[in-house]
Amino acid sequence: MRNLLDFILRYSSWLVFLFYVVISCTLLFQKNPYQHYIYLTSANKVSSMVYNATSNVTSYFYLHDINEDLQHRNASLELEVIDLRKQIQKYQEALTASDIELDSALMPYDFIIAHVISNSISRTHNYITIEKGALDSIRPEMGVVDQNGVVGMVNIVGDHTARVISLLNPKMRLSCKVKGREYFGSLVWDGKSPDEALLEEMPRHETFRKGDTIVTSGYSAVFPPDIPVGTIISHEKEHDDNFYALRIKLFTDFSRLSTVRVITNEIKDELNAISAGEEND
C-alpha cells in the first residue's frame, strides 16, 4: 500500500495530465460530430488491423488440420477421377462399336476393340502395342484399323498384349486402289513423314487426280475391301516408266492413336489354305 501511495505521489502530475487528456478527448469526440466521425473511422481501422492480425495467428495454428483435410479431399477426388476415366473408356468402347455397325466395309467381318499402350512414329521401323492378346482371341496377321482408317497388322501375340506392325513401317505393304477403280497397287511407307506414304505400281496410262480417295483393295484375308486409307496429294515417276508412284496423305493420325479395332475374319484360314494350294499348283 505504501508503495502504491509513493508511486501516485511521485507521478501525480502525469496522472493528473492523463486524466484531463481523457476528459478532454471524451468531451471533444462526443460533443463535436466531425471529431466523432474521425474517431469512429480511426477506431474501425485499428480494430480491423487487430482482428486481422489475430485471424492470421489463429489460422497459422489451424494449418495442420486444414492441410490434413485437403489431403483427404484430394484423395477422394483422385478416386472419382479414376472412376470417371473408367466410365469414359466404357462409353468410348460402346461408341466405337456403334460406329463399326454403320461401317459397310466391315459388315462381313467381326472386330475386337483394343487400347494402344505403346506407339512409335519417329523410327525407321515403327510398331504399336495393344492391351489385347491371345486370351482375347487376337491372332497374328489380323488387320488393325481405327475410326479414320488403316493402322497396321498384328505381328506378335502374347497372352495379354500384342505387337502391331504399323503402317509407318517399310515391312508393312498394303494392297490398295483408287476408290471406284479396279487398278490396284502396293502402299508402303517411305520414312519421310508419319502423315504420308507411297502407293506404288499404279499404271501410267490411268488418270489420277489430286484428292482422289485411296481404299483397301480387299485382295487379301487381312483387310476387307474399301477401308479408307488416304487421299492422293501428288504423283511421282517410278524407275519403270510404265508405272506411277502416288503420294498419299494418310487418314490415320498415328500421333494420337488410342482406341483401335482388330479385324477378325472367320474364313481367313480357309482363304489361306486355298492360296497355299494355288501356290503349290
The CATH superfamily of the largest domain bears the name Rod shape-determining protein MreC, domain 2
Tally of extended strands?
12
Spans of at least 5 consecutive residues with low confidence: none
Q: Helicity level, as a percent range?
A: 25-40%
Q: If strands are numbered along the chain, what order do they take across the biggest sheet?
A: 1-2-5-4-3-12
Q: What is the strand content? A: 25-35%
User: Helix tally?
Assistant: 4
Pairing-aware structural class of the strands and helices?
alpha+beta
What is the general shape? elongated
Calculate the terminal CA-CA distance, rounded to whole Å: 132 Å
| CATH architecture name of the largest domain | Beta Barrel
* Rg on CA atoms, Å: 40 Å
Mean pLDDT: 79
SSE series:
HHHEEEEEEEEEEEEH
Count of distinct structural domains: 2
**Would you state the CATH class of the largest domain?**
Mainly Beta
> Could you say what the CATH topology of the largest domain is called?
Thrombin, subunit H
Describe the largest sheet: 6 strands, antiparallel, barrel
Explained architecture:
This protein has 281 residues and is α+β, with helices and mostly antiparallel strands. The chain is built from 4 helices and 12 strands. The chain has a 6-stranded antiparallel barrel with strand order 1-2-5-4-3-12.
Task: Put the structure in a nutshell.
With 281 residues, the protein is of the alpha+beta class. The protein has four helices and twelve strands.
